[in-house]
Amino acid sequence: MNAYDVNPLEDTESDAALAYAEERRENIRAFTRTSPDYYIRNFDKIGASSRFTPTFNLMAGLFGPVWFGARGLWTWALPFLILEALALVQIARGLFGDLAADAMARIASIEGTLELRRQQLAAAIESNSDRVDAYQRTVTSLEENIGGIRAEAEALAAQGPSIVLMGIVILLVVKAVQSVVANWALEARFSDWLSDRSIRSAMPVSQIAFSAVFMALIVSAAMLHYSFPGRYSLLSEFPTDPDIRLTSISAVENFIAWCVRNSGAFFDGLTYGIRTLLDALEVILVQTPWIVIASLIVLLTWLTAGIRTAIYSGAFLAYMGLLGFWEAAMTTLALLGTAACLSIVIGIPLGMFAARRPRFYAFIQPIMDFMQTMPAFVFMVPVIAFFGVGKPAAVVVTMIFGGTPVVRLTVLGLRGVPESVREAAISFGANKWYLLTKVDLPLASPSIRAGINQTIMLSLAMVVVASLIGAKGLGEDVLEALQYANVGQGILAGFSILFCAMILDRIVQGARK
Question: Using CA atoms, how far apart are residues 467 and 475, in angstroms rounded to an integer?
Fold first, then answer.
């Protein structure tokens, strides 16, 4: 081979590979700081395969969650901490714990009763009462129970070595798993660090100290609590003062009372507006001949979702009518329509406003989280204080529970509009109104329709709860069935609620498709 046979391209590729390998080694040194040669060797082994490659890290096995926490691998550190704490608690219980404590407490309780029955037996024997045999049987039964519990306590006390052995086995298994997965988890974090240098690397002393102290406190508290139950009250009961709760209750009640006194006109006007809309819908749905309403619902279903769904809707309406739930179902739809309409009228503009204003959306997001996660029975109390008992209060409760999805999904849909499409429309001279009505809303309409659907479904889920504060309709039938254990009525009324939900869902989903 002469000099002309050498391929310059191969030389270039080999130089690039060597440069990449050297750069990778330098990055591993910068990332790990400690034992770089060990990690270079293991990271190369792990990176050579797309599958899980087991390696052995002795330090990770010895220090366990402390090592993982110091390396910033908290998603691994916390599960390992729980498992190690479980193992150490088992070992401490087996060595130092009073395993028969509960059984001995039961014996002490029964012995007090036994002493009382013995006194009654002695008094009955002395007075030659006819209840001597009954007292004798009771005393004998209690003595046998004490004997059985004492045998159980002895058996529990003898389980100490086996509990210790179980804890040791669990601890060794956890340590082995930690040693095997440590390098694999750290290599994955190293890959993330290559693309984002803000991720913490190495093992800072502060992180080592924090991890060690945190793990020690958690494990020590768990071992003391389970090994010596009841001895340390701070570990068993949260230190509190009953006056704090009483003061907080009084402050909340005073605040609600102040709000009611100073906002009566506002809430009276709001109640009047809700009742007006609700009465109008009830006139349309309840007082209009049933054949008109049924025909309109079937026609609407046919136009939006097809002939097959229209046939199903007709069958559902016939079910409600034949079983006598027609008026209750229409009342439920009126209540639902009022709550859903108000939620949609308020929610979509609010979502449109918040979609392009991240700070405003960050402000209202915790409020929506509160509305969606707080149990209905909790926010029902202040609603009754402001609106009283009746249908307006039921509408407000339904709006609070079901009004957030339309806001969230409107924001999600508008933020999902491609910026390239918006920029193209702006470049062709589109103003803000045209951009909103012809670009943003049409492209976000699937998400907005999904939000409307979810609002309607969540509002319908509040039918039974709203009946507790005076809302009529199908929820009242279900509530009555619960009160009187009328299984048949409850199931039939529940199916009516289900069919109302299915009809509304098919109408909204059909229009979206």
Answer: 5
C-alpha to C-alpha distances, 92 to 88, 89, 140, 247, nearest whole angstrom: 6, 5, 38, 41
pLDDT score for 10: 58
C-alpha angle with apex 440: 433 to 411, nearest 5 degrees? 115
DSSP string, 28-66: HHHHH-SSHHHHHHHHHHHHT-SS------HHHHHHTHH
Q: What DSSP state is assigned to residue 203?
A: -
Cα 482 → chain centroid: 27
Tell me how far apart the alpha carbons of residues 274 and 341 are, in angstroms, rounded to a whole number: 11
Specify whether the CB–CB gap between 190 and 31 falls below 8 A.
yes
Predicted local distance difference test score (pLDDT) of residue 510: 64
Whole-Å CA distances, 23 to 26, 40, 49, 198: 5, 11, 20, 19
* 24 three-class SS: helix
Tokens linked to 203 = 């093992």
DSSP collapsed to 3 states, 377-446: HHHHHHHHHHHCCCHHHHHHHHHHHHCHHHHHHHHHHHHCCCHHHHHHHHHCCCCHHHHHHHHHHHHHHH
Distances (CA, A) of 318 to 73, 105, 321, 478, 505: 60, 64, 5, 19, 18
What would the two tokens of residue 264 be?
Answer: 């009566």
Which residues touch 495 (CB under 8 Å, ≥6 apart)?
319
Within 10 Å of residue 166's Cβ, how many Cβ atoms? Answer: 16
* Contact (Cβ atoms closer than 8 angstroms) between residue 452 and residue 347: no
In three-state secondary structure terms, 206 is helix
* Longest CA span, the chain: 128
Residue 1's pLDDT is what? 47
Give phi and psi for 199, each to the nearest 5: -65, 135
> Could you tell me how far CA 157 lies from the centroid of its own chain?
40
Q: What pLDDT does residue 12 have?
A: 67
pLDDT profile of the chain (513 residues), mean per 10: 52 72 87 88 85 89 91 91 89 76 75 80 78 80 80 74 89 93 91 86 86 89 78 76 85 85 80 83 81 88 84 88 86 82 88 89 89 79 80 84 88 88 83 84 87 83 76 79 80 84 75 47
Tokens of 420: 């390239």
- 265/260 Cα distance (integer angstroms): 10
Can you give the pTM of this predicted structure?
0.65
User: Any long-range contacts for 356-363 (C-beta under 8 Å, 24+ apart)?
Assistant: 356/414, 361/411
Q: Are 297 and 503 in contact (CB under 8 A)?
A: yes
Residue 328 CB partners (closer than 8 Å, separation 6+): 472, 473, 474, 476, 477, 493, 496
